[in-house]
């Protein structure tokens, strides 16, 4: 029996030594030290031994167990260390390798112009208001002094969804919505950027979906000269200090009087293709808020007056960047968009 136990020890130690990974080592542990292992099997023959030999064999069996178990522990520590080293070697980062280029997106030119205009008005104390693109007939037209059947509704050909719902044709409904929120108490000083939709035929200067920025100021003693001063600052900041503006009489049902606003062209009146040789470029519609519009939104038109304007950032971006076709903004050609990249 002694011989058997010693052979088992030699055999087990050899196997432990040759174990290549933690799984193999664990299998060896289970095989030799487990309850059904060979050492236990050998000890089953103890009954045949003399009483003097039994404790000796018991002690020897314990020694064999201890030797195998200690060899397993040592081997386990060794294999664990090896596993860590292999893992570290696998995960080594070569900090000297050149970095991989990350492709960066860029702001769309329209977004840039809109953000520039927003910043400009925020600096003048305006806040930004928003409204829904699917609008009710009431806010898009009626609250703006355009009752059903009014001929001026034809100025903006609309996409109707139901009798009472349509895609907003301008950002002016946000004026009416915002004024209602102020519950007849001025001052109101907002701009509203957003998408609008019209059944216009697409061409170089018309798109069926485009952007507008509405402006609205309502307070006591607001006059046409406030409107003119504000738009002058806007034009000079956006297009350059040497630019002038001029107001031409116009008509909008929601403003009285109404004007179209032109900015002097960069050709300084010499005449060029962009200004169609007139020296002036039309950039927005504006006027003094019609008393009916103030009253419908709950403002006392004897106490309060206001001005409003609505511009098309698409056309402004075309002027600013010299773009000859509005459709470039919506056809997602990266060759076009990359020209406005701040980083490549
Ligand atoms: C309006 O939409 C008025 N709501 C503006 C306004 C607001 C006037 C407040 C008075 C007071 P108009 O239809 O002119 O006005 O459009 C305003 C601007 O939108 C135009 O100057 C133009 O720059 C732009 N625009 C109009 N139709 C199109 C189109 N199909 N494609 C691209 N831009 C357009």
Shape: elongated
Q: Unreliable runs, pLDDT <50, ≥5 residues?
A: none
Number of helices: 11
Q: DSSP strand (E) fraction?
A: 15-25%
Ions, cofactors, ligands: which are bound? adenosine-5'-[phenylalaninyl-phosphate]
**Computed CA radius of gyration, to the nearest angstrom:** 42 Å
CATH homologous superfamily label of the largest domain: Bira Bifunctional Protein, Domain 2
Q: What is the string of helix and strand elements?
A: HHHHHEEHEHEEHEEEHEHH
- Please state the second-level CATH architecture of the largest domain: 2-Layer Sandwich
Strands side by side in the biggest sheet: 1-4-5-9-8-7-6
Mean pLDDT over all positions: 90
How many separate domains? 2
Stated plainly, the CATH topology of the largest domain is called BirA Bifunctional Protein, domain 2
Catalytic activity: tRNA(Phe) + L-phenylalanine + ATP = L-phenylalanyl-tRNA(Phe) + AMP + diphosphate + H(+)
Organism: Bacillus thermotolerans
Binding site for Mg(2+): 256
Keywords: Aminoacyl-tRNA synthetase, ATP-binding, Cytoplasm, Ligase, Magnesium, Metal-binding, Nucleotide-binding, Protein biosynthesis
Describe the structure.
With 344 residues, the chain is of the alpha+beta class. The chain has two domains: 2-89; 109-343, Bira Bifunctional Protein, Domain 2 (BirA Bifunctional Protein, domain 2), CATH 3.30.930. Helix content is 40%, strand content 19%. It contains eleven helices and nine strands. It has a seven-stranded mixed beta sheet, sandwiched between helices. The chain has a two-stranded antiparallel ribbon with strand order 2-3. It is elongated and about 125 Å long. It binds adenosine-5'-[phenylalaninyl-phosphate] (FA5).
